[in-house]
Design brief:
alpha+beta; Deoxyribonuclease I, Chain A; six-stranded mixed β-sheet; 3 helices; 38% strand; globular
């Protein structure tokens, strides 16, 4: 395995602002993005829920092939690169991407294994305002203090953003200490948590949720957890917002 060289992007909607109402899907896809069953399931989700933004973690991409993602623009922030594949977090959207920033974790999982990555993108709302979106897969298999340090690094990168913000992903919050640090992080940014009526269907470890969507500067319209029928060990979570 090699440290990734750079982000990968395909931007096709640079003149389009985010709609007044928009729907986000957040999902750890467990490296299954090349399987036909995954593609069929995503097709169904896109059609049924009219998804505007996809925030995916553990994406797997062939180095030599384009990603098949309908008519979305996308940015892929890799954390692993091999001779044949790239892995990382991917944000897909049907609006402009003003800029993007990829943060590779300072620490490695299990000391000498992989880094984790966070992708920060800005999307046009109006002539003067942008929606900042953070898509992350938090570091695992490190001390809780190291987990907090990575959240602190993300905070420093986004704390000066004025206005609307979405922070979502697989936070690997499998113990009480990690959950506490995540609460501190969200409070420091004045973020609200998206709640779900069917929260029991969200991936848990030791009774603690792993997947979250946080927001500020937008109004939550609806939320849902989707049964992925064993395609991934995580279920997709969906939230609809209004500007």
């Amino acid at each position: 395995m090699f440290k990734p060289k750079s982000i990968i992007k395909s931007l096709k909607h640079q003149e389009i602002s985010i709609e007044e109402e928009f729907t986000i899907l957040c999902w750890n896809v467990a490296k299954l993005t090349l399987k036909s069953s995954f593609k069929d399931f995503v097709d169904k989700l896109v059609n049924e829920h009219k998804l505007d933004i996809l925030l995916l973690q553990e994406v797997k991409k062939n180095i030599s092939n384009e990603i098949e993602l309908h008519d979305y623009s996308y940015v892929l922030s890799p954390n692993i690169e091999t001779k044949k594949h790239i892995f990382g977090v991917l944000s897909a959207f049907k609006s402009s991407c003003v800029n993007e920033l990829s943060l590779l974790s300072k620490k490695q999982e299990l000391r000498y294994a992989t880094h984790k990555t966070t992708l920060i993108t800005n999307h046009k709302i109006s002539n003067e305002q942008t929606l900042l979106i953070v898509n992350l897969h938090a570091i695992n298999f490190v001390k809780s203090g190291d987990f907090k340090h990575e959240l602190d690094e993300i905070y420093l990168s986004i704390k000066n953003h004025q206005g609307a913000m979405i922070v979502a992903g697989d936070f690997n919050t499998w113990n009480a200490k990690r959950v506490s640090y995540l609460r501190e992080f969200s409070l420091s940014l004045e973020l609200k948590e998206v709640n779900f009526n069917n929260e029991k269907d969200i991936k848990r470890v030791f009774s603690n949720r792993l997947d979250y969507i946080f927001y500020r500067g937008v109004e939550l319209v609806s939320s849902n957890v989707i049964n992925s029928k064993k395609i991934s060990d995580h279920n997709p979570i969906i939230a609809k917002f209004k500007l």
